């Protein structure tokens, strides 16, 4: 399967974003979000989902974590947290310590009640988009991105 590889051209421009939730016994939902910024890394968009590529000039490209051969994040430089109001300060500190010790492996393989709601890779521009084979061989380097279409509400809608 071929994929688009999106790589930042400047360091400290790629973020792993994950949203986690837990169903509580009283029927409420608790949640926390993590944004971990790395010095380097990459994101992927499957070729048949090229509608998910950024438009020419977009400041941020969004990618999922599943396709490709790995985000290859390198050198974590900061982690930002957001918690639902029902999570105590003590539990927040415990979650942080568990994540700092186990990283994303703890999120997905740890023994806890948290489940993934969503995860994504945010690549802040400037970035480069290449089309690659499954093994990483570049098919086309520096893909020219499509210009953002002009919004219109004229009928018939443009296709």
Question: What are the key terms here?
Answer:
159 residues, mainly beta, four-stranded antiparallel beta sheet, 1 helix, 13% helix
Report on this structure.
- By secondary structure, the chain is mainly beta.
- The chain has one domain.
- Helix content is 13%, strand content 41%.
- It contains one helix and nine strands, in the order ββββββαβββ.
- The chain has a five-stranded antiparallel sheet, covered by helices on one side. The chain has a four-stranded antiparallel sheet with strand order 4-1-8-9, with no helix packed on it.
- Strand 2 (14-23) and strand 3 form a beta hairpin.
- The model has no long low-confidence stretch (mean pLDDT 93).
Low-confidence sequence ranges:
none
Side-by-side strand order of the widest sheet: 5-7-2-3-6
**What is the percent of helical residues?**
10-25%
* Helix/sheet category: mainly beta
Topology:
Blueprint: E1 3-8, E2 14-23, E3 29-40, E4 43-46, E5 60-63, E6 74-83, H1 89-109, E7 115-124, E8 127-132, E9 138-140
Antiparallel strand pairs: 1-4, 1-8, 2-3, 2-7, 3-6, 5-7, 8-9
Question: Gist?
Answer:
13% of the residues lie in helices and 41% in strands. The chain has 159 residues and is mainly beta.
């Amino acid at each position: 399967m071929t994929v688009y590889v999106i790589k930042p051209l400047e360091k400290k421009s790629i973020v792993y974003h994950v949203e986690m939730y837990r169903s509580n016994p009283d029927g409420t939902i608790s949640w926390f979000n993590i944004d971990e910024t790395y010095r380097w890394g990459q994101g992927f968009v499957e070729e048949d989902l090229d509608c998910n590529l950024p438009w020419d000039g977009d400041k941020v490209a969004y990618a999922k974590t599943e396709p490709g051969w790995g985000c290859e994040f390198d050198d974590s430089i900061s982690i930002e947290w957001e918690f639902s109001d029902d999570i105590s300060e003590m539990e927040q500190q415990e979650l942080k310590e568990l994540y700092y010790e186990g990283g994303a492996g703890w999120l997905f393989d740890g023994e806890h009640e948290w489940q993934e709601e969503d995860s994504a890779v945010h690549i802040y521009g400037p970035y480069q988009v290449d089309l690659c084979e499954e093994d990483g061989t570049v098919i086309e380097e520096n893909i020219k991105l499509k210009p953002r279409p002009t919004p219109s509400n004229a009928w018939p809608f443009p296709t």
